[in-house]
Fold:
Amino acid sequence: MSVILVTGSYDHEIRFWEAWSGICSRTIARSGESGQVNRLAISPDKRLLAAAIHKKVYIYEITSTSSTPLTCLDAHTNNVTSVSFHSEGKWLVTGSEDGTIRIWDLRSTQVHRTYDNGAPGKFYLFFLNDVCVHPNQGELISCDQAGCIKQWDLSENLCSHELTPAGDVPIRSVSLASDGSCLVAGNNKGKCYVWKINEEKSDLPRYQAVTKFSAHKKYLTRVLLSPDVKYLATCSADTTVKLWSISQNYEFRQEKVLQGHQRWVWDCAFSADSAYLVTASSDHTARLWEMASGETVRQYNGHHKGETPPAAVCCALHDGAG
Structure:
Protein backbone atom coordinates (compact mmCIF):
# COMPACT_ATOMS: atom_id res chain seq x y z
CA MET A 1 0.00 0.00 0.00
CA SER A 2 2.10 2.91 -1.28
CA VAL A 3 -0.35 5.72 -0.46
CA ILE A 4 -2.24 5.56 2.82
CA LEU A 5 -5.11 8.01 3.25
CA VAL A 6 -7.32 7.75 6.33
CA THR A 7 -10.20 9.85 7.64
CA GLY A 8 -12.07 9.87 10.93
CA SER A 9 -15.48 11.26 11.79
CA TYR A 10 -18.18 11.96 14.34
CA ASP A 11 -19.95 8.87 12.95
CA HIS A 12 -17.30 6.89 14.91
CA GLU A 13 -15.95 5.35 11.70
CA ILE A 14 -12.40 5.28 10.38
CA ARG A 15 -12.11 4.96 6.61
CA PHE A 16 -9.18 4.06 4.38
CA TRP A 17 -9.28 5.46 0.85
CA GLU A 18 -7.66 4.77 -2.48
CA ALA A 19 -6.29 8.25 -2.98
CA TRP A 20 -6.60 8.49 -6.76
CA SER A 21 -9.81 6.56 -7.38
CA GLY A 22 -11.67 7.99 -4.37
CA ILE A 23 -12.89 4.49 -3.46
CA CYS A 24 -13.19 3.55 0.22
CA SER A 25 -11.07 0.41 0.55
CA ARG A 26 -11.67 -0.36 4.24
CA THR A 27 -13.91 0.80 7.06
CA ILE A 28 -13.29 0.32 10.77
CA ALA A 29 -16.91 0.57 11.86
CA ARG A 30 -16.55 0.40 15.67
CA SER A 31 -20.25 -0.50 15.86
CA GLY A 32 -21.71 -0.24 19.34
CA GLU A 33 -18.78 1.84 20.60
CA SER A 34 -19.06 5.45 21.67
CA GLY A 35 -16.62 8.28 21.08
CA GLN A 36 -15.83 10.35 18.03
CA VAL A 37 -12.49 10.04 16.25
CA ASN A 38 -10.49 13.15 17.16
CA ARG A 39 -7.07 12.69 15.53
CA LEU A 40 -5.22 10.16 13.39
CA ALA A 41 -1.53 9.41 12.85
CA ILE A 42 0.27 6.88 10.65
CA SER A 43 3.54 5.34 11.82
CA PRO A 44 6.69 6.16 9.82
CA ASP A 45 6.92 2.56 8.54
CA LYS A 46 3.23 2.64 7.45
CA ARG A 47 2.48 -0.37 9.65
CA LEU A 48 0.31 1.20 12.35
CA LEU A 49 -2.55 3.69 12.60
CA ALA A 50 -3.06 5.52 15.89
CA ALA A 51 -6.60 6.82 16.39
CA ALA A 52 -7.44 9.19 19.24
CA ILE A 53 -11.04 8.33 20.16
CA HIS A 54 -12.47 10.25 23.11
CA LYS A 55 -10.20 9.43 26.11
CA LYS A 56 -8.37 6.51 24.51
CA VAL A 57 -5.94 5.82 21.71
CA TYR A 58 -6.48 2.71 19.60
CA ILE A 59 -3.65 1.18 17.58
CA TYR A 60 -4.68 -0.59 14.37
CA GLU A 61 -2.63 -2.62 11.93
CA ILE A 62 -2.90 -0.91 8.55
CA THR A 63 -2.57 -4.04 6.39
CA SER A 64 -5.16 -5.97 8.44
CA THR A 65 -8.82 -6.27 7.50
CA SER A 66 -9.89 -6.62 11.12
CA SER A 67 -11.75 -3.84 12.95
CA THR A 68 -10.24 -5.03 16.23
CA PRO A 69 -7.33 -2.86 17.39
CA LEU A 70 -3.95 -4.37 18.27
CA THR A 71 -4.06 -2.51 21.56
CA CYS A 72 -5.77 0.32 23.41
CA LEU A 73 -3.81 3.01 25.28
CA ASP A 74 -5.97 4.02 28.21
CA ALA A 75 -4.70 6.53 30.77
CA HIS A 76 -6.05 9.95 29.81
CA THR A 77 -9.11 11.15 31.71
CA ASN A 78 -10.49 13.51 29.04
CA ASN A 79 -10.58 13.93 25.25
CA VAL A 80 -7.31 13.08 23.48
CA THR A 81 -6.68 15.98 21.10
CA SER A 82 -3.33 15.08 19.53
CA VAL A 83 -1.35 12.00 18.60
CA SER A 84 2.14 11.76 17.01
CA PHE A 85 4.64 9.00 16.37
CA HIS A 86 8.33 9.29 17.23
CA SER A 87 10.48 8.96 14.08
CA GLU A 88 11.41 5.34 14.82
CA GLY A 89 7.79 4.40 15.51
CA LYS A 90 8.55 2.88 18.92
CA TRP A 91 7.01 5.74 20.90
CA LEU A 92 3.73 7.60 20.68
CA VAL A 93 3.05 11.08 22.05
CA THR A 94 -0.48 12.11 23.04
CA GLY A 95 -1.98 15.35 24.36
CA SER A 96 -5.34 15.65 26.08
CA GLU A 97 -7.92 17.97 27.55
CA ASP A 98 -6.99 16.40 30.90
CA GLY A 99 -3.98 18.75 30.82
CA THR A 100 -1.33 16.07 30.32
CA ILE A 101 1.08 14.95 27.63
CA ARG A 102 1.88 11.25 27.73
CA ILE A 103 4.67 9.35 26.02
CA TRP A 104 3.82 5.71 25.38
CA ASP A 105 6.17 2.82 24.80
CA LEU A 106 4.43 0.91 22.00
CA ARG A 107 6.41 -2.25 22.77
CA SER A 108 4.95 -2.50 26.27
CA THR A 109 1.90 -0.21 25.65
CA GLN A 110 2.71 1.46 28.99
CA VAL A 111 3.00 5.17 29.76
CA HIS A 112 6.72 5.93 29.74
CA ARG A 113 6.45 9.55 30.87
CA THR A 114 3.78 12.13 31.76
CA TYR A 115 4.06 15.92 31.58
CA ASP A 116 1.52 17.95 33.52
CA ASN A 117 0.48 21.16 31.78
CA GLY A 118 -2.03 22.26 34.37
CA ALA A 119 -2.42 23.93 37.73
CA PRO A 120 -5.08 23.26 40.39
CA GLY A 121 -8.15 25.50 40.24
CA LYS A 122 -7.82 26.52 36.59
CA PHE A 123 -8.10 23.09 35.05
CA TYR A 124 -10.05 24.06 31.92
CA LEU A 125 -7.38 26.60 30.89
CA PHE A 126 -4.77 23.89 30.57
CA PHE A 127 -6.64 21.73 28.05
CA LEU A 128 -4.03 20.78 25.47
CA ASN A 129 -5.14 21.51 21.92
CA ASP A 130 -2.11 20.24 20.00
CA VAL A 131 1.29 18.61 20.51
CA CYS A 132 4.02 17.99 17.94
CA VAL A 133 7.42 16.30 18.07
CA HIS A 134 10.48 18.36 17.16
CA PRO A 135 12.47 16.90 14.23
CA ASN A 136 15.39 16.36 16.63
CA GLN A 137 13.08 13.93 18.49
CA GLY A 138 14.28 15.38 21.80
CA GLU A 139 11.63 18.05 22.34
CA LEU A 140 7.86 18.42 22.22
CA ILE A 141 5.89 21.58 21.46
CA SER A 142 2.40 21.95 22.95
CA CYS A 143 -0.32 24.60 22.91
CA ASP A 144 -3.30 25.09 25.19
CA GLN A 145 -6.52 26.93 26.08
CA ALA A 146 -4.61 29.38 28.30
CA GLY A 147 -2.81 30.77 25.23
CA CYS A 148 0.53 29.14 26.09
CA ILE A 149 3.00 27.38 23.82
CA LYS A 150 5.52 25.23 25.68
CA GLN A 151 8.66 23.35 24.79
CA TRP A 152 9.12 20.14 26.77
CA ASP A 153 12.68 18.82 26.95
CA LEU A 154 12.68 15.03 26.90
CA SER A 155 16.23 14.67 28.22
CA GLU A 156 15.77 17.12 31.11
CA ASN A 157 12.17 16.01 31.69
CA LEU A 158 10.82 19.54 32.08
CA CYS A 159 9.22 22.54 30.36
CA SER A 160 12.21 24.57 29.13
CA HIS A 161 10.51 27.39 27.21
CA GLU A 162 7.13 29.11 27.27
CA LEU A 163 5.57 31.56 24.80
CA THR A 164 2.34 33.56 25.16
CA PRO A 165 1.99 35.48 21.88
CA ALA A 166 -1.57 36.78 22.38
CA GLY A 167 -2.17 36.82 26.10
CA ASP A 168 -4.90 34.38 27.12
CA VAL A 169 -6.35 33.82 23.61
CA PRO A 170 -6.35 30.00 23.18
CA ILE A 171 -3.74 28.60 20.80
CA ARG A 172 -5.48 26.04 18.61
CA SER A 173 -2.66 24.48 16.57
CA VAL A 174 1.14 24.37 16.24
CA SER A 175 3.40 23.17 13.43
CA LEU A 176 7.17 22.73 13.31
CA ALA A 177 9.26 22.93 10.15
CA SER A 178 10.64 19.55 9.10
CA ASP A 179 14.17 21.01 9.28
CA GLY A 180 13.54 22.51 12.72
CA SER A 181 13.98 26.05 11.40
CA CYS A 182 10.69 27.62 12.51
CA LEU A 183 7.51 27.25 14.53
CA VAL A 184 4.04 28.42 13.48
CA ALA A 185 1.07 28.72 15.84
CA GLY A 186 -2.56 29.64 15.13
CA ASN A 187 -5.13 30.91 17.61
CA ASN A 188 -8.91 31.07 18.07
CA LYS A 189 -9.09 34.51 16.46
CA GLY A 190 -7.55 33.39 13.17
CA LYS A 191 -4.10 34.86 13.79
CA CYS A 192 -0.80 33.13 13.04
CA TYR A 193 2.47 33.67 14.89
CA VAL A 194 5.89 32.64 13.59
CA TRP A 195 9.20 32.10 15.37
CA LYS A 196 12.61 31.32 13.98
CA ILE A 197 14.19 28.54 16.06
CA ASN A 198 17.81 29.18 16.99
CA GLU A 199 20.32 26.70 18.39
CA GLU A 200 20.29 26.42 22.18
CA LYS A 201 24.05 27.08 22.18
CA SER A 202 23.72 30.40 20.34
CA ASP A 203 23.47 33.83 21.98
CA LEU A 204 20.10 34.39 20.30
CA PRO A 205 16.79 33.46 21.96
CA ARG A 206 15.67 29.90 21.28
CA TYR A 207 12.38 31.21 19.81
CA GLN A 208 12.86 34.47 17.92
CA ALA A 209 9.56 36.09 16.90
CA VAL A 210 9.78 37.00 13.21
CA THR A 211 6.21 37.79 12.10
CA LYS A 212 2.50 37.56 12.84
CA PHE A 213 -0.47 37.95 10.53
CA SER A 214 -4.23 37.51 10.35
CA ALA A 215 -4.94 34.35 8.34
CA HIS A 216 -8.72 34.11 8.79
CA LYS A 217 -11.45 36.33 10.22
CA LYS A 218 -13.07 33.33 11.89
CA TYR A 219 -11.91 30.53 14.16
CA LEU A 220 -8.69 28.84 13.01
CA THR A 221 -8.61 25.04 13.42
CA ARG A 222 -5.25 23.88 12.03
CA VAL A 223 -1.89 25.23 10.86
CA LEU A 224 0.47 22.94 8.96
CA LEU A 225 3.84 23.56 7.34
CA SER A 226 4.58 21.61 4.16
CA PRO A 227 7.38 19.02 4.25
CA ASP A 228 9.55 21.23 2.00
CA VAL A 229 8.86 24.22 4.32
CA LYS A 230 7.82 26.37 1.34
CA TYR A 231 4.13 26.61 2.27
CA LEU A 232 1.82 26.97 5.24
CA ALA A 233 -1.75 25.67 5.12
CA THR A 234 -4.35 27.18 7.46
CA CYS A 235 -7.81 25.66 8.03
CA SER A 236 -10.76 27.58 9.37
CA ALA A 237 -14.39 27.80 10.39
CA ASP A 238 -14.88 30.07 7.36
CA THR A 239 -15.00 26.87 5.19
CA THR A 240 -11.70 27.64 3.44
CA VAL A 241 -8.11 26.51 3.51
CA LYS A 242 -5.51 29.14 2.70
CA LEU A 243 -2.06 28.44 1.28
CA TRP A 244 0.77 30.80 2.19
CA SER A 245 4.19 30.87 0.54
CA ILE A 246 7.17 31.36 2.84
CA SER A 247 10.20 33.41 1.79
CA GLN A 248 13.70 32.87 3.17
CA ASN A 249 13.26 35.82 5.51
CA TYR A 250 9.94 34.46 6.80
CA GLU A 251 7.54 36.63 4.85
CA PHE A 252 4.18 34.85 4.45
CA ARG A 253 2.21 35.66 1.33
CA GLN A 254 -1.27 34.32 0.58
CA GLU A 255 -1.02 32.32 -2.64
CA LYS A 256 -4.35 30.51 -2.89
CA VAL A 257 -7.70 30.11 -1.15
CA LEU A 258 -8.98 26.54 -1.44
CA GLN A 259 -12.76 26.80 -1.77
CA GLY A 260 -15.21 23.92 -2.04
CA HIS A 261 -15.98 22.70 1.45
CA GLN A 262 -19.40 23.78 2.72
CA ARG A 263 -18.67 23.82 6.46
CA TRP A 264 -15.78 24.11 8.89
CA VAL A 265 -12.47 22.61 7.75
CA TRP A 266 -10.93 20.80 10.71
CA ASP A 267 -7.76 19.10 9.56
CA CYS A 268 -5.26 18.77 6.74
CA ALA A 269 -2.26 16.69 5.68
CA PHE A 270 0.39 17.24 3.00
CA SER A 271 1.76 14.65 0.59
CA ALA A 272 5.45 13.85 1.08
CA ASP A 273 6.45 15.92 -1.96
CA SER A 274 4.33 18.91 -0.82
CA ALA A 275 2.42 18.79 -4.13
CA TYR A 276 -0.97 17.77 -2.67
CA LEU A 277 -3.05 18.54 0.40
CA VAL A 278 -5.84 16.49 1.97
CA THR A 279 -8.53 18.26 4.04
CA ALA A 280 -11.38 17.06 6.28
CA SER A 281 -14.56 19.05 6.88
CA SER A 282 -17.85 19.23 8.78
CA ASP A 283 -19.57 18.85 5.39
CA HIS A 284 -18.81 15.10 5.87
CA THR A 285 -16.27 14.97 3.04
CA ALA A 286 -12.53 14.94 2.62
CA ARG A 287 -10.84 16.49 -0.41
CA LEU A 288 -7.52 16.08 -2.21
CA TRP A 289 -6.20 19.37 -3.57
CA GLU A 290 -3.44 20.00 -6.08
CA MET A 291 -1.18 22.71 -4.68
CA ALA A 292 -0.11 24.07 -8.07
CA SER A 293 -3.64 24.77 -9.31
CA GLY A 294 -5.53 25.08 -6.02
CA GLU A 295 -8.19 22.76 -7.44
CA THR A 296 -9.91 19.72 -5.92
CA VAL A 297 -8.69 16.63 -7.78
CA ARG A 298 -10.63 14.08 -5.72
CA GLN A 299 -13.45 14.11 -3.16
CA TYR A 300 -14.02 11.36 -0.62
CA ASN A 301 -17.65 10.78 0.40
CA GLY A 302 -18.96 8.18 2.80
CA HIS A 303 -19.02 9.32 6.41
CA HIS A 304 -22.61 9.33 7.64
CA LYS A 305 -24.71 9.38 10.79
CA GLY A 306 -28.42 8.83 10.36
CA GLU A 307 -30.05 11.65 8.44
CA THR A 308 -27.51 14.26 9.47
CA PRO A 309 -24.15 14.32 7.69
CA PRO A 310 -21.52 14.39 10.44
CA ALA A 311 -18.18 16.11 10.50
CA ALA A 312 -15.15 14.45 8.96
CA VAL A 313 -12.84 15.91 11.57
CA CYS A 314 -9.43 14.37 10.99
CA CYS A 315 -7.25 12.92 8.28
CA ALA A 316 -3.83 11.36 7.85
CA LEU A 317 -1.77 10.82 4.70
CA HIS A 318 1.46 8.87 4.23
CA ASP A 319 2.77 8.49 0.69
CA GLY A 320 6.48 8.71 1.44
CA ALA A 321 9.00 5.94 1.94
CA GLY A 322 7.91 3.36 4.49
Q: What stands out?
A: The radius of gyration is 18 Å.
